[in-house]
């Protein structure tokens, strides 16, 4: 029996230059292994500053972008791939750049009718001198993922977190400060424009930080989340609306918070290249719907292939099985 991606050359972009490099290496490895099982000829590319030169030599049929964070997820690598006229997975230049910039994406989402937290951007030195809003609140980089550089400031805190002005801080001069939304941590995948399901994340540490996301046993996932029906449906609807408003394609994951005391649901951000590690939420949501990891990777790859080069029009030829599984 012919394997679905037999004969296709896929370059898996992994690693990269961001603070999320280690996560990307795991995502990329898992996806590359799946692609090989599906019959593809796979080139594993640790994406450095010579990426354009490497891909020009490889000339793959499609690039599976398993990069996370700055440079790989913010529109920069997407621009390189557009310039090389190569097909690639996930969202394009504009959607990637918008989603990565928390302030700009919140403005777009709010205009589209998605409920987002308040707050705004502040100079990090100003934010470190005194509370810019009454605690509890959240301080985070404006353009990072995987909860890197995120601090919770609780009621009664004497001062803001001083880490944001430490010499080790490398996440820009402005920080996003938002009111802390108590309650449930939720995630909703969107595939081919349709909400997949809703997961409740219960972090072992009390905060869904980097370790809770990627560490063994760092969090418990309840899939589907035990929510009132109107909240579950609203989480799906808002995630679909956010995906469309930012111009995303392929698979995205929206992160939400639900205040179950005051019945308030807010969407925090959209991840245009969700993790594909063994503890990641999107593969888990797909599995709950009967789509195993290999089929998920197959769909993401075929979706990119069918769109054609430069993120544009569909190609006349595509691997088999196109369409959401």
From TrEMBL:
The cross-references to SUPFAM superfamilies, in alphabetical order and at most eight, read:
Glutathione synthetase ATP-binding domain-like (SSF56059), PreATP-grasp domain (SSF52440)
| Residue numbers binding Mg(2+) 2 | 269, 271
Pathway stated in the Swiss-Prot or TrEMBL entry: Cell wall biogenesis; peptidoglycan biosynthesis
- Name the InterPro entries on file: ATP-grasp (IPR011761), ATP_grasp_subdomain_1 (IPR013815), D-Ala_lig_Van_CS (IPR000291), D_ala_D_ala (IPR005905), Dala_Dala_lig_C (IPR011095), Dala_Dala_lig_N (IPR011127), PreATP-grasp_dom_sf (IPR016185)
Transmembrane stretches, start-end: none
- Any keyword Cell division? no
Care to name a GO molecular-function term for this sequence? D-alanine-D-alanine ligase activity
Q: Which GO terms describe its cellular component?
A: cytoplasm
Biological processes annotated in GO: cell wall organization; peptidoglycan biosynthetic process; regulation of cell shape
Source superkingdom: Bacteria
Task: Give the active-site positions.
Answer: 20, 146, 280
EC number from the UniProt entry: 6.3.2.4
Catalysed transformations (reactions)? 2 D-alanine + ATP = D-alanyl-D-alanine + ADP + phosphate + H(+)
Q: Which Pfam families match?
A: Dala_Dala_lig_C, Dala_Dala_lig_N
Instruction: Write out the residues that bind Mg(2+) 1.
Output: 255, 269
Q: Which positions fall inside the ATP-grasp domain?
A: 106-302
Asked whether the UniProt record includes Transport among its keywords, one would answer no
Q: What class of enzyme is it?
A: ligase
PROSITE patterns this protein is in?
A: ATP_GRASP (PS50975), DALA_DALA_LIGASE_1 (PS00843), DALA_DALA_LIGASE_2 (PS00844)
Q: How is the cofactor bound?
A: Binds 2 magnesium or manganese ions per subunit.
Purpose = Cell wall formation.
Entry's PANTHER family?
D-ALANINE--D-ALANINE LIGASE, D-ALANINE--D-ALANINE LIGASE B
Give the UniProt family note: Belongs to the D-alanine--D-alanine ligase family.
Name recorded for this polypeptide: D-alanine--D-alanine ligase
**Classification of source organism:** Bacteria, Pseudomonadati, Pseudomonadota, Alphaproteobacteria, Caulobacterales
Recorded name of the encoding gene: ddl
């Amino acid at each position: 029996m012919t394997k679905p991606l037999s004969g296709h050359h896929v370059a898996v972009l992994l690693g990269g230059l961001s603070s999320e490099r280690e996560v990307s290496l795991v995502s990329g490895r898992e996806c590359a292994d799946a692609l090989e099982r599906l019959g593809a000829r796979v080139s594993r590319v640790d994406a450095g500053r010579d990426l354009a030169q490497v891909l020009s030599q490889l000339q793959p049929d499609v690039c599976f972008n398993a990069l996370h964070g700055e440079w790989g997820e913010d529109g920069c690598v997407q621009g390189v791939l557009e310039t090389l006229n190569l097909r690639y997975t996930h969202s394009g230049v504009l959607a990637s750049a918008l989603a990565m910039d928390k302030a700009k994406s919140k403005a777009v989402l709010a205009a589209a009718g998605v409920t987002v937290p308040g707050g705004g951007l502040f100079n990090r030195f100003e934010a470190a001198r005194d509370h810019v809003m009454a605690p509890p609140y959240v301080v985070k980089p404006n353009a990072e993922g995987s909860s890197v550089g995120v601090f919770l400031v609780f009621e009664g805190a004497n001062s803001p977190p001083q880490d944001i002005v430490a010499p080790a801080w490398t996440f820009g001069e402005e920080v996003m400060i938002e009111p802390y939304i108590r309650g449930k941590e939720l995630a909703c995948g969107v595939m081919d424009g349709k909400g997949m399901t809703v997961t409740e994340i219960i972090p072992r540490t009390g905060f869904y930080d980097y370790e809770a996301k990627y560490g063994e046993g760092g969090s418990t996932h309840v899939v589907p989340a035990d929510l009132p029906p109107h909240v579950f449906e609203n989480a799906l609807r808002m995630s679909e609306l956010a995906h469309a408003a930012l111009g995303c394609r392929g698979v995205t994951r929206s992160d939400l918070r639900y205040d179950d005391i005051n019945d308030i649901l807010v969407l925090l951000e959209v991840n245009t290249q969700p993790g594909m590690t063994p503890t990641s939420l999107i593969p888990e949501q797909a599995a709950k719907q009967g789509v195993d990891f290999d089929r998920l990777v197959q769909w993401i790859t075929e979706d990119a292939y069918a769109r054609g080069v430069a993120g544009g029009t569909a190609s006349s030829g595509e691997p088999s099985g196109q369409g959401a599984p």
